[in-house]
TrEMBL record:
Residues 8-275 form the Pyruvate carboxyltransferase domain. This is Hydroxymethylglutaryl-CoA lyase, (HMG-CoA lyase) (HL) (3-hydroxy-3-methylglutarate-CoA lyase). CDD domains: DRE_TIM_HMGL. Its EC number is 4.1.3.4. Pfam families: HMGL-like. Belongs to the HMG-CoA lyase family.
């Protein structure tokens, strides 16, 4: 346990990664109230939506309205995903100043998710990044399937590291390595971080862990031991990627908070406000999938 509490930055991805994976679209007013309540809980970053094709992800087709109408709290970064220049233009027109580019460590997943190979996606992102930086945006770069791919199996760390390196060269300020299908075990996460942190400082690294097999917190422990202090989570373990079979839920924010508190880390999140955000969503959408325990997630596959 650290003697002076160390701060861990939580990135709340529920509004984006969570709501993209529901069978129906949550009404826009509720999304906005949910994000506003998360802002009040004090998250340093909230991933709000995606400017992707509404055909691919109809659940987030209201991205413009969400980004225009949320109340921005000083100290919180409001992120949105963009897959291409069209997405960038939409995001900038909606007032975004923090964007996430999302690449993958395997061509198979890249094709399934965004319809192009890794190389083609990075070529696209090169133009997007130049324009986004010129517009003053902060950039996160995701490397999906950094440990396991639902289509091709285990992924060599060097492949994920190479994609992270190329995203960093494009100007991404932060690199988020993702266990998209929640299959990683601590040794695998250690190997990945060992390789990644050889050239990238831990301050620029985030981990994005789905919790399919209930190992996400073990993997957080590894990330913390390697000095990573930015961790993604979603309220009540919402979420998953519609293009990654077997990715039902993110690491639940509440479980991450318990875990950090038990180990003496400071997280800066107001738990009562978080509970209000969660209650608000639950009361508005009674049928929303609840995957806030590993058992529930295993049962929902
Ligand atoms: P495509 O069909 O190959 O692209 O989609 P296209 O350029 O041929 O365009 C097809 C149609 O989409 C056209 O419309 C375009 O205008 C439109 P049409 O002429 O047919 O009416 N279009 C767009 N519309 C709005 N916004 C745009 C846009 N781009 C094209 N930005 C595309 C390619 C990438 C757009 C598509 O495959 C797509 O949107 N995919 C969504 C992928 C996605 O959102 N995945 C989930 C997020 S990633 C994730 O969850 C993983 C993560 O959590 C980390 C982890 O856990 O691993 C981040
Ligand atoms: Mg995800």
């Amino acid at each position: 346990m650290p003697s002076v509490p160390e701060r861990v930055r939580l990135v709340e991805v529920g509004p984006r990664d969570g709501l993209q994976n529901e069978a129906f679209s949550v009404p826009t007013d509720i999304k906005i109230a949910f994000i506003d309540a998360l802002s009040q809980a004090g998250f340093p970053a909230i991933e709000c939506t995606s400017f992707v094709s509404p055909r691919a992800v109809p659940q987030l087709a209201d991205a413009e309205e969400v980004m225009r109408r949320i109340a921005r709290r000083p100290g919180t970064r409001y992120l949105a995903l963009v897959p291409n220049e069209r997405g960038l233009e939409r995001a900038l027109a909606a007032g975004c100043d923090a964007l996430a580019l999302f690449a993958a460590a395997t061509d198979a997943f890249s094709q399934a998710n965004i319809g192009v190979s890794i190389d083609e996606s990075l070529q696209r992102y090169a133009t997007v990044a130049v324009r986004a930086k010129a517009a003053g945006c902060w950039l996160r770069g995701y490397v999906s399937v950094a440990v396991h791919c639902p289509y091709t199996g285990p992924v060599e760390p060097q492949r994920a590291v190479e994609v992270a390196r190329r995203l960093a060269e494009l100007g991404c300020d932060e690199l988020a390595v993702a266990d998209t299908i929640g299959k990683a075990v601590p040794d695998e996460v250690a190997r990945l971080l060992e390789a990644l942190l050889r050239w990238l400082p831990a301050e620029r690294v985030a981990v994005h862990l789905h919790d399919t097999t209930g190992r996400a917190l073990d993997n957080v422990a590894v990330a913390l031991a390697y000095g990573v202090r930015t961790i993604d989570a979603a309220v009540a373990g919402l979420g998953g990627c519609p293009f990654a079979p077997g990715a039902p839920g993110n690491l639940a924010t509440e479980r991450l908070l318990d875990f950090l508190e038990a180990r003496g880390y400071d997280h800066g999140i107001d738990r009562r406000a978080l509970e209000r955000a969660r209650t608000l969503l639950w009361e508005a959408i009674p049928g929303l999938a609840r995957t806030d325990s590993p058992t529930a997630q295993l049962g929902s596959q």
